[in-house]
Design brief:
By secondary structure, this protein is α+β, with helices and mostly antiparallel strands. The protein has two domains: 3-83 and 106-211, Rossmann fold; 222-264, no CATH class. The chain is 23% helix and 24% strand. The chain is built from eight helices and twelve strands. The protein has helices spanning 47-61, 65-71, 74-78, 88-91, 186-189, 197-206, 236-244, 256-264, and strands at residues 3-5, 17-23, 26-32, 107-113, 117-124, 138-146, 155-160, 163-167, 173-176, 209-211, 230-232, 251-253. Helix 1 packs antiparallel against helix 2 (65-71). Adenosine-5'-triphosphate binds next to helix 1 and helix 3.
Length: 272
């Protein structure tokens, strides 16, 4: 899993923590992060869910978090499907952790913080209605704060429903005229460099996040195609050539198709 900021001298150099609640198998998690983080665990333990949650956060900055959730099957499949609380007997594995009927409203919450800024988003189901889109997730709240910890005093931008407020220089809250639709993140609509510069700064920073997990692994993926391997060819027959080329040995791709297959998969090969 690799997610990183593309340039070196950035406002957000390192993410300090990632917070996830009610996303798939992750019920509630605040994860401290370092410059390099390695996630390991048994099959089905939630490694990919953690990674997907980070991608969803990045999608918020691209204005597409609700569409991404829809592609994942909507809140119905992405919300934590387990019980509202985990009993002592569940913890000790005396009883299985299984979904029950919910009594409380549930929301999917994602956030991160760095030394400079933090951001959190809260998505939930809409109030029941006859609308054809009544199962579409809605962005209920978004917050941007300064520093690594969210406190009332450090809050800079607060979006509740359609309404966005920003804190002015003298500490008072001001409303921004833009009214947001339930599927719009504040990053997609609020562009006020004078009153809400943090929105633009954070959006630009989050848009530099890169995710390198696009290697195809399906049956038709180029790296799975039958092809020759990289072989060492310092045979008796080749030795004359090698020494005349002043090379210790000669590594050669046996079949050119392998080379192009790897290149298609984004791997650059140099053969001697
Ligand atoms: N909505 C949900 N609520 C609760 N659990 C869920 C939900 N959606 C998926 N899961 C659980 O998430 C787990 C899969 O997690 P994930 O794919 O992140 O595992 P992984 O650690 O990446 O596994 P692998 O090593 O096999 O790739 C499964 O146990 C699945 O039951
Ligand atoms: Mg996985």
């Amino acid at each position: 899993m690799v997610a990183c900021s593309a340039a070196s001298a950035r406002i957000i150099d390192v993410l300090r923590s990632l917070a996830i609640a009610n996303y798939r198998s992750i019920r509630e998690l605040v994860l401290p992060l370092g410059p390099l983080n390695l996630v390991t665990g048994p099959d089905g333990s939630g490694k990919s869910n953690l990674y997907r949650a980070l991608r969803l956060l990045a999608d918020a900055a691209q204005g597409g978090i609700v569409a991404s959730l829809a592609r994942e099957g909507g809140l119905a499949s992405t919300l934590w499907a387990g019980p509202e609380s985990i009993s002592r007997r569940m913890r000790s594995r005396e009883v299985r952790i299984e979904g029950t009927r919910r009594k409380e409203p549930v929301s999917l919450r994602l956030g991160f913080s760095s030394d400079e800024f933090g951001y959190a988003i809260d998505l939930g189901l809409p109030t029941p209605s006859d609308s054809m889109f009544s199962r579409d997730p809605e962005i209920k709240r978004e917050c941007i704060w300064s520093g690594p910890i969210l406190r009332p005093a450090s809050l800079l931008v607060d979006r509740r429903g359609a309404h966005v407020q920003v804190r002015s220089g003298d500490g008072e809250w001001e409303s921004i005229n833009t009214r947001l639709a339930t599927f719009e993140s504040l990053f997609s609509r609020v562009a006020d460099p004078a009153r809400a510069p943090e929105v633009l700064t954070l959006r630009d920073e989050m848009q530099t996040w890169r995710f390198y997990d696009h290697f195809r692994t399906d049956a038709d993926a180029p790296p799975r195609q039958p092809a020759g391997a990289l072989v060492r060819t310092d045979t008796q027959e080749n030795r004359g050539k090698v020494s005349s080329n002043r090379k210790a040995c000669d590594f050669r791709l046996v079949r050119a198709s392998r080379h192009s297959a790897m290149r298609d998969a984004g791997v650059n090969l140099r053969s001697g």
